[in-house]
Amino acid sequence: MIKEKIKENIGIIYLDRPGQLNALDDNAINRIRNILQKYEEDDRVKAVLLDSLIEKGFSAGGDLKSMYYDYLVNDNCKEKDGLLKNEFDLDKYVASYKKPIISHWFGITMGGGIGLSINSDFIIVEENINWAMPETSLGFAPDVGVGKFISSLPQVLGQYVGLCGASLEASDLIKYGFADIYIKSSDYEYVIDKLFSLSKDYDGKDLIDQFSKSIESFGQELEESKIDKSMEKIDKYFSHPSIEEIFDDLKKNEASDDFAKNTLAILKERDPFSLAVQFEKYFADKNLTYKEVIDRDLRIIQNSIQEKMVNEGIRAKIIEKDNNPNWPHKSIEEVSMDDVKKLLGIERTYKENIY
């Protein structure tokens, strides 16, 4: 599941769970932490590389099936958030790690896989990346601190990505500062060999600086992404000051606009309460540190577990796969904004603040 080796002066942690798309369960989380702690104290190791040995991608995120059976519906489990706390603590540890971390994003890169690696000192991304935070379809909001990064996106794009779980491509990730270099997958071995070679002579920030300079020629030109092509529509529908107005505008135009029709269908499948939380969370996360965001993320998902939203989302999407979740709130109109404000610890919604 998790493999490791040291090459030159680079400690490598490989995710290797092909049947589950490198989904992170409690065993994987503990193993990664133990290896990181070992490398942190090993003077031979100048930096750590987070990588994947499966062809389909870096990681699909947390192991939701394990979470469902081992925690959520397991009557013998008293600590329902045990898995989550371990994962969130690992992500905070990575964010404060003493040595440089380099991550390799390609293929399926989602949820907890992003949370594990987004605070890396250098991120390599390939042309086949499918980067997304689809949590609103599972009964909670984008978590593991990634909301701090989503909040750095322009408002309309941040809302589109956070609410709809829309995918970002390699060019998007470079354009918006989520990754450091976009390369062709066929060049990866050449690129990473540069890191191994440089680790013999450099460490710390100098190693990252030298590595970045040495691989500039492998960088690809940015391309027009699906996001770019849809930006006019995204701007039209996601610039509103409330989640209700986004819904209203999409409904008003669904008969004449395929983008509105398709986007409305996506949002209707998602948990209404999580959508309301994520809309306000986009703004609230801007004023918090990463640690404050991820600590609040844990409270938010704990609430979603208590209210059975996570149970229902995972059941419908992962366990029974009927794609027909029975959410506690049937529509966005049923959501109490007072409950949203209380959960987020804010006094006013974004709309209340600007009017």
Describe the model.
Helix 1 runs parallel beside helix 3 (82-95), helix 3 (82-95) runs parallel beside helix 4 (111-117) and helix 3 runs antiparallel to helix 14 (290-306). This protein has 355 residues and is an alpha/beta fold. The protein has a six-stranded mixed sheet with strand order 1-2-3-5-7-9, with helices on both faces. A three-stranded parallel sheet has the order 4-6-8. 50% of the residues lie in helices and 11% in strands.
Which short descriptors sum up this protein?
single chain; about 350 residues; six-stranded mixed sheet; three-stranded parallel sheet
Topology:
Blueprint (H helix, E strand, L loop, with lengths): L1 E6 L2 E6 L10 H16 L5 E6 L4 E3 L4 H9 L9 H14 L5 E5 L2 E3 H7 L4 E5 L3 E3 L14 H4 L4 H10 L5 H6 L5 E3 L4 H11 L5 H11 L11 H12 L5 H11 L4 H12 L2 H13 L5 H17 L2 H11 L17 H8 L5 H5 L1
Parallel strand pairs: 2-3, 3-5, 4-6, 5-7, 6-8, 7-9
Antiparallel strand pairs: 1-2
Helix pairs in contact: 1-3, 2-15, 3-4, 3-14, 6-13, 11-12, 13-16
